[in-house]
Amino acid sequence: MANVRHFGAKGDGTTDDTQAVEHTLAQGDGLLYFPRGDYRITRPITIELDKAGRTSVEGERGTAKVVMAGEGPAFHFIGTHAATADPLGFKPNVWSRQRMPGVSNIEIEGGNGSADGVRLEGTMQAIIENVAIRQCRHGVHLHKRNRNVIIANNQIYYNTGVGVYIDACNLHQINITGNHISYNRLGGVRLDKSEVRNLQITGNDIEYNNHRVHKTDPEPTAEIYIDVTADGASVNEITVASNTIQATESPGGANIRIVDNVTDERGYVTSAGRRPGLWTITGNVIGSQENNVYLTGCYGVVLSGNTIYSCGNRNVLLENCGQVNVGTCNFRRHTGQYGVGVRVTNSSDITFNGCQFRDETDEGQKSGASLFELANCERVTLTGCQLTDGVPYGLDASLVSQLNMTGCTVVDTRRQRVMKSAVRIIGKGQDNLLANNTIGLGTTGQAWDIAHNANVTARDNLTVK
């Protein structure tokens, strides 16, 4: 290894060690080693991999800190890989000189408002692990083109930008796993203007990534924010699993936000092109934002086995979505002022199976919304769900066609009923079916509030008093 102290670095937190680190990079053996100390640098350590050869940065088991006092990333890796991850697409120089650049076992602290932690461009098999990044702008910034990236077991904490920022990047095969990504003002993991495939976000704690502790004006953000509205952007083949994803409520905020803007003339999402889809969101604990899961323009998403709790507006909000399956999720609140509701608008081919919704208060949600709302939707199926103690309604639908609700329970269990009726369906619709449900009476003395032009067939339902 090339010890930066052997090349003149002081590590006293005051001396500008930039030139010494650059000297180490130029004359060393490819491993920039930082022993215990505080190393102040004033410009990015730019590592051109094809020129420098295989290179990584290593700290002494977390006892070394680099303070980036200048603008830009503390460590900037630049490769030349321009193909896919297919072995047949590699140029010989990429494998021989550029594979597996990395940063590990070190702290990076920002000493400048425009300082970043690590930036990757054109890299193959980059690994960022056991790194603490704090008080920077962006923690890890991926730009242009990268392949087979691993970001694991890091502390990305209290930065003014994004924790992991994938920005205008063509990126396939990336694992973000086992990290604490917290208190970053503009989001935990964010993708903008990018084409991404095979992204795994697993086993992380991603929380409180908004403006609150920074004491700045709020900006709409999310713990995981995927923006696919730019021309050429697409994000597919994604797994979000076994994470804790939570925050304090912020205006326009969400825990998981996926947004596209392509719809057909009816307002429904189109399946043409690369809409955000082929997503699985499973086994997570998600809560305490304005909207916990907020999807716009998505096509082909599975949301299953999650605990989703305490929203300011909606636990799940789907707009202009298609082919979304929601199964065995528990929707609840942990404090009275929050809500648990779900709203689906301008969407088609939506299923909810085996989910539980419970209001748990006499006042209902502060939004005034029912537990489950549908507006201008077609081909929506609810099976085996429980909607308990909704205010004003359990299921509240308008302008729906081919709604199929079977085997569900919609009741008010309070000693003094508050729910007006279990189910309300209004507006013109067609081919709607309610069958084999257990339906409770409301304050109106009726279980149903169904408009004549809604075209609903109700059969074999059990009404309970």
Structure description:
- With 465 residues, the chain is mainly beta.
- 4% of the residues lie in helices and 52% in strands.
- Strands 14-16-19-22-25-28-31-34-32-29-26-23-20-17 form a 14-stranded parallel β-barrel.
Top keywords for this entry?
mainly beta; 14-stranded parallel barrel; elongated
In short:
By secondary structure, the protein is mostly beta strands.
The count of β-strands is 43
Which residues form runs of ≥5 with pLDDT under 50? Answer: none
**Shape, principal axes of CA atoms:** elongated
The strand line-up of the biggest sheet is 14-16-19-22-25-28-31-34-32-29-26-23-20-17
Sheet having the most strands: 14 strands, parallel, barrel
Structural class: mainly beta
Helix and strand layout, with pairings?
Elements: E1 2-3, E2 12-16, H1 18-27, E3 31-34, E4 37-41, E5 45-48, H2 49-52, E6 56-59, E7 64-68, E8 72-78, H3 92-97, E9 102-110, E10 115-124, E11 127-134, E12 140-152, E13 155-157, E14 164-177, E15 180-182, E16 189-192, E17 195-202, E18 205-207, E19 222-227, E20 234-241, E21 244-246, E22 254-259, E23 277-282, E24 285-287, E25 291-296, E26 299-304, E27 307-309, E28 314-319, E29 322-327, E30 330-332, E31 342-345, E32 348-353, E33 356-358, E34 372-383, E35 386-388, E36 393-406, E37 409-411, E38 421-426, E39 432-435, E40 438-440, E41 448-450, E42 456-459, E43 462-464
Parallel strand pairs: 1-3, 2-4, 3-6, 4-7, 5-8, 6-9, 7-9, 8-10, 9-11, 10-12, 11-12, 11-13, 12-14, 13-15, 14-16, 14-17, 15-18, 16-19, 17-20, 18-21, 19-22, 20-23, 21-24, 22-25, 23-26, 24-27, 25-28, 26-29, 27-30, 28-31, 29-32, 30-33, 31-34, 32-34, 33-35, 34-36, 35-37, 36-38, 36-39, 37-40, ...
